[in-house]
Sequence to fold (711 residues):
Amino acid sequence: MPIRSLLKKSPPLLVATLCLTQHAATPVAEGKLPEALAKARRELAHKPRRIVFNNDGDDHIAAGPATKEAFLKARLSPLRGSHVDTVVYCTSRPFGMYTHATQVGDVLVDPMARGDRRNIVQELLQAGTDPLALAVEFCRESDMEILWTMRMNDCHDTSHSPDTPHVYFSSFKKEHPEWLLGTKANRPRIGNWTAVDFAQPEVSEFVCKVIEDVVARYDVDGVELDFFRHLVYFRSVAAGGEATSDERRVLTGMVRNVRTILDRRATQLGRPLLLTARTPDNPAYCRTIGIDLERWLEAGLLDVWVAGGDFRLNARQSSVELGRKHDVPVWCDLDPSIRSDNSGPFNRNAIESLRARALGAWAAGASSVYLFNWFNPHHPLWRELGDPALLRGRPRTYFANVMGRSGYLTEDSALADGGRFRQIVAPHPADPGRVPAGAPLDVLFELGEQPQEDIVASCHVLAGGAETLSATLGGADLGNGRRSGAWRMFDVPAALLGSPTRTLSLRTTSSTRPDEGTWDVDTDPASLLSPGAGTDAPWNLGRGSPRTHRELIDGDLLIADRGTERGDYLYVSLGWMADPRKPAVVEVTAKVMSGKSGIIVANGEYEEKIWLSSDHAAAESAKLHLPVAATDGYHVYRIELVGDTISLAVDGKRATEGKIAQRAHAGRNTLAFGASTSGTLGEARWRRVRCRTGSGGAVVYDVVLTVGMKQ
Fold:
């Protein structure tokens, strides 16, 4: 039934309250596509595409009128004439809630008013349309393909509670809390408590009914199953274990049913409907969390595979080869980096970086580049990334590691010890590498270059803890380079770039036994906010909230937490590559102004919070406590850490050693200092922060390859 007919028959508020309990289960009968349709489906899957744009549907939040023109202007209409051939449109919010007029789940009609912006779904429904209908109409008018995407287990509702209900918390979850992976008071070890448990047959049944409803009433070209939103699907994984064979069969059965739904609808329409899935790029990792990717590909359940997302585990070429093995095109995902400021001249989210990433994907054999979480329709990326020849004529910046492990979703946050599946290891400011004496650190670059005489290239390495670094690229000697602050630059002959992949090998001749007086990092925190000031390491200044604050005061860095709402805290952090088997030392000079501030140390295995209050310093999980009149002036806090053992001293007064009970979250290996936690307040002035890990060699925070055109 067309959406306008639906809305005439059912008032919008009634449509908005329809839920699963009003619909009986309908078994899905598996059929086989007619030969002509099967051939057309394969041809459609392999159709050349330049850019696939995932619009996550936030264009339903608007400040202006709820009109077709205003809605499309936010993200879609400026893309006419761009390289975007396919729009993947998302109307799903946390599981069970949608911004289209679903007949199965809840429709998000709450105004969600914030300032001059509001949710316009209700207004669109009253006008006889909705965001998905408008997106479909636009794509049909603009000769673009459109897929509808479902976030398979979205959890942007974790702050929900009965006394403060979250607008995204669906009827499905309210009515069946026993189908969730936990509760707010009893959260799972891995993943989010509001995630649904796919071991419950009603969950997969619900997914199939939502999809069946969409393809029956909207003129889409197919469906995407977005498993990256979010990755924990079973209690076994949430508890810190691995998915069972029975659990994998559950997801496989669901995907098979979705395939059947699409083929059945395609037969009715006389045209094919595509099924794509967005998953992590490592098949073994997928299998361990319950996604039997290789079986899906082998069985022909997927027409296209979208490889990668919030993190990457494999080289792109291996993903493409897996797709080719099963005759399935691969779209390479280019998510933005959560960290774009890297204490230097290079930005991971700049157009130069996007050009390089797209070139690397094209050179690896990608069938398209897939853009997720990029929303500015006026950005030049939409008119550049789909044309490799165009990209090779413009400056580009290759990062050895764009994503790192600095986001809220990493391989370890979705699977206990998920890092064991990582096939590519490269330095990132939040996850640095180390060059030991006598052995190389090998860094893989995925390039999209061709031999050109009109280009100039150089390699830039941000490193500390060593006086000398030498480098080779593809076996060719680049020498020792030259220093510019903490960065080292190596000239790269253009002839070395004509390969899809190149390995940069870094070596150091520095001592592996630094003496007791040597600090790996010795930072004046005030310099982090001083324009043009050099820093000895790439500190991440953190995001904070409207109720947190930092500023320079008399040469100190003031960090303040002046709110008690969720997210009210602010920390400056550094990946410091501490070896848990060797002693690490931190010395911080600070003055507590009020409330509570903190120092967080993590060595990859254990993590401890040291709280600085007005009258004491305390190590939380080790239960160490030292009295100190912290507000009367500056004090030196010294922390020594090895394995799970920690000691705390203030102004030379040493506390008894203690044992840390807290494991490092997602393998965290960082040093951080800042203000308070969500529920408390705190302000402190920071004057000096220095650390030593005792691991020796050079710590490599970042590796960047720039390619430009000769003048």
